[in-house]
Amino acid sequence: MTAMRILIVHAHPEPRSFNGALTDSARALLPTIGHELIVSDLYAMEWDPVSDRRNFTIRADPERYDQQAEERFAASAGSFSSDLRAEMDKLLWADTVIFQFPIWWLGMPAIMKGWIDRVFAVGVAYGGGKWLDQGRLAPRRAMLSVTTGGGAAPYADVGLYGPIDPILYPIHHGILRFTGFQVIEPFIVYGPSRMTELQRAATLAQYRLRLMNLASAPTLPVIHAADYENFVRRQA
Amino acid sequence: MTAMRILIVHAHPEPRSFNGALTDSARALLPTIGHELIVSDLYAMEWDPVSDRRNFTIRADPERYDQQAEERFAASAGSFSSDLRAEMDKLLWADTVIFQFPIWWLGMPAIMKGWIDRVFAVGVAYGGGKWLDQGRLAPRRAMLSVTTGGGAAPYADVGLYGPIDPILYPIHHGILRFTGFQVIEPFIVYGPSRMTELQRAATLAQYRLRLMNLASAPTLPVIHAADYENFVRRQA
């Protein structure tokens, strides 16, 4: 097995939650099967998710704040704040990133959305016309490992929310695939708080199995940048 | 015209941005046409988007943190933290809520997602089997007013991101319609930073027109809770 460098970005306010148990399983397993592991436990780190002027130690324009322009400047001047720099270093170190979070309001908890907002800066995660399979973060791989509050019924075709794939599309496509990740099929646990202890233990075992087979886990289709470049050129 | 009580939840780190101009237009217009207006300017308020123990002044369970259980307790004990209580009061006061934000990574900036995560608590915004047209926040109305970084091309049918409606679905359906809002068609400005001054002025005029006709603006289809209750019962 090829050794991987795995970053888990973990967001849950209670360490003894099922999200905590999933990441604890990963912490116990991954180093023993030869992988390197770093965990960014966002609540434990008291990660600040608010993207603003404080992202930068020097400002390109001290008057009017244009976040993308500031990011472009900081990427060349090396002037990202130290908390951003630390997370960017982890991201660039990793070849595989796992995002562990409970789905809140059909999306990421704010603390994790703000990790993306701040760390995925122009000149680091995207920019310069590099996207999709040509993206700056290619050929990295990423996987969402998520829990839901209720059971699976709301995510049925005729359920209250509908199927989960379109719900995860903004993350899978707009964040991950856009920046160059190959997206591993998500590991989804529906309603762990409604499970028996036995069901929870079985689910943790399934997760360990997924982690052991991470290198061969199925991925979402790759989309080629060239197709969109042609499209954009036609529009221009 | 019937007077409305309008809450604008505004999220942008630069007051002189186009998002700022849109909300400034609303501030100038709405009171002059008879509406009451409150603006929650999240960056100016230094809103904390991280949902955790600090949401509560008393804890139902000081050991293990179960956010929904804590919310349920706080809703009956009146023990939400003062910053949450203030925003909940505005939400319940309003009959119309406008969310003004730039689309970052196909979603809300973290500071606004965390306004939802914290303010839309069980017992306040949802819970007790009340959802969709029977939701706790019915018969309120809500509208997204959003900007994008690039132009409209990525949101074309064959564009890099694809159509914006499915991208907004987690917000429109999972947050707003779920809690009982009638969802007004979004006001979308593609790439204001790439516009000429004249185009920007014309767009602000269109926004004022939308605000003047807010009561009759088209809404997304209402979905009836009864349909899903039958479905859930069949699954149980």
Largest sheet of chain A: 5 strands, parallel
Could you list the spans of chain A in which at least 5 consecutive residues all have pLDDT below 50? none
What shape does the CA trace of chain A take?
A: globular
Name given to the CATH architecture of chain A: 3-Layer(aba) Sandwich
What is the number of strand segments of chain A? 5
H and E order of chain A:
EHEHHEHEHEHH
Tell me the span between the first and last alpha carbons of chain A.
47 Å
Alpha plus pi helix count of chain A: 7
In quaternary terms, these chains amount to homodimer
Superfamily (CATH H level) name of chain A: Flavodoxin domain
Strand order of the largest sheet of chain A: 2-1-3-4-5
Q: What is the arithmetic mean of pLDDT of chain A?
A: 95
Highest-level CATH class of chain A: Alpha Beta
Radius of gyration of chain A over alpha carbons?
A: 19 Å
Look up the CATH topology of chain A: Rossmann fold
The largest chain-to-chain contact, stated as pair and per-chain residue counts, equals: A-B, 51 and 51 residues
Q: Percentage of helical residues of chain A?
A: 25-40%
Give the class of chain A from helix and strand content and strand pairing.
alpha/beta
- Hey, roughly how much beta strand do the residues of chain A contain? 15-25%
Estimate nothing, just give the exact number of structural domains of chain A: 1
Describe the structure.
The structure is a homodimer of 236-residue chains. Chain A is globular, with a radius of gyration of 19 Å. The first copy, chain A, has 236 residues and is of the alpha/beta class. Helices cover 37% and strands 15% of the residues of chain A. The mean pLDDT of chain A is 95. Chain A has a single domain, classed as Rossmann fold (3-Layer(aba) Sandwich), CATH 3.40.50. In chain A, helix 1 crosses helix 6. A five-stranded parallel sheet of chain A has the order 2-1-3-4-5, with helices on both faces. The interface between A and B is large, with 51 and 51 residues.
